[in-house]
Amino acid sequence: MIGARDNVYDVIVVGGGAAGVGAAASLRHAGIDNFVVVERHTVGASFDLWPAETRFITPSFPTNSVGMLDLNSIAIGVSPAFSLELEHPTGKEYALHLRAVAKIFDLPVFEHTDVERVTNDGDSFHIDTSDKTLHAKHVIWAAGEFQYPRLNGFAGSALCHHTATIASYEDLEGDDFVVVGGYESGVDAAYHLALRGKRVRMFDRGCPWKTETSDPSVALSTYSLERMRQSRFVEHVELFPYMPIVSVTAEDDGYEVAALEGQRFHTKSKPLLAGGFEGSLKFVQDFFERREDGFPLLSENDESTIVPGLFLCGPTVRHDNHVFCFIYKYRQRFAIVAKAIATSLGLPTDDLEAYYRRWGMYLDDLSCCGEECVC
Ligand SMILES: Cc1cc2nc3c(=O)[nH]c(=O)nc-3n(C[C@H](O)[C@H](O)[C@H](O)COP(=O)(O)OP(=O)(O)OC[C@H]3O[C@@H](n4cnc5c(N)ncnc54)[C@H](O)[C@@H]3O)c2cc1C
């Protein structure tokens, strides 16, 4: 049975996704037991919502015993490659993996519990949920970036179908699609439609498939680039780089899609919006200073610089010019957060450091190097 006396915890983790489950596993390694994960739906819920056909672009391939076992592992000793026997799991398959990890680490999770408000009185955090108020000295905010599809990006964007709300590409009616956004989700949508023999026109304000950087936070993944070279894609998908879409208007028999420089396109099917999310940080944004680029300013332990005890985990984390937007990037920070919280609770951290060191991970040197490939 989960529960602390008077709902008082050492740590509350908000969100049971990849970041929340991974951070909670690190708390276990740090010897912290009085914590709880609070999840609005069920563990892995946002992965459950991916279109049925969408697969991980980052491959799962079990490595030898250095660091975490594959690119999509969130804790030492677990690997979706091993447990699922899949290189590119679907969202639903990965959600199953996360639930298994939560079980293996015996994580205390309040599911179906929505965090509605977070306050801080200078001493503790008070978290109002749908059915009770929880209290803690430390909060790990891991509520994710992909819950709130942005439907106000341009005039008429609410008329479009956001890819995050598509259950399966199989269900989409029509033969002729416009996809707004040419990064990972856009290519994924175009690919699945092309496989079904549909005509697709894909627009992007830039040209992500030609971006010259080795950082997959900016450039398209090799998985998507390979898909773009497949004959079905080449035959069915027309690319419109450097063409920002500024409006979508409903017409009698479909939609008009207008680009910045006046070009107009017509389609009978609802245009698809690929990408664009609001993120969940808005609930706690006043607790963080902002960097110039709008991302939260964090201490070297990923803690708020103005409200001590509040930590951020997940794809929103930024340090200098390092973008931690993939699992294999932001997972490097879990143990750093766990160590900082253990230290604040007066717990020794030697065993935690030794444990990670055994797996080739050094807690004072877990940021990505930011170097790009040169060939
Ligand atoms: C289509 C798609 C494909 C992707 N492919 C890859 C990939 O191949 N490789 C990769 O590394 N990353 C990929 N990503 C990114 C990956 O999904 C994110 O890195 C991951 O979901 C972030 O984990 P998270 O725990 O921060 O957020 P989430 O997994 O979204 O978890 C946040 C959790 O918090 C809960 N929550 C939110 N608000 C509240 C609240 N107020 N109260 C209680 N609970 C709340 C949510 O229900 C959710 O379960 C992809 C994303 C998308 C959308």
Structure, described:
By secondary structure, the protein is of the alpha/beta class. It has two domains: 5-147 and 277-358, 3-Layer(bba) Sandwich (FAD/NAD(P)-binding domain), CATH 3.50.50.60; 157-273, FAD/NAD(P)-binding domain (3-Layer(bba) Sandwich). The chain has ten helices and 17 strands. Strands 1, 2, 3, 4, 5, 6 and 15 form a seven-stranded mixed beta sheet that branches. The chain starts with 7 loop residues before the first strand and ends in a 17-residue tail after the last helix. Bound molecules: flavin-adenine dinucleotide. Residues 14-20, 38-41, 45-46, 50, 54, 56-58, 114-115, 142-144, 146-147, 185, 280, 314-315, 326-327 line the site of flavin-adenine dinucleotide.
Attribute tags:
375 residues; alpha/beta; FAD/NAD(P)-binding domain; 2 domains; 7-stranded mixed sheet; 5-stranded parallel sheet; 10 helices; globular; disordered C terminus; binds flavin-adenine dinucleotide
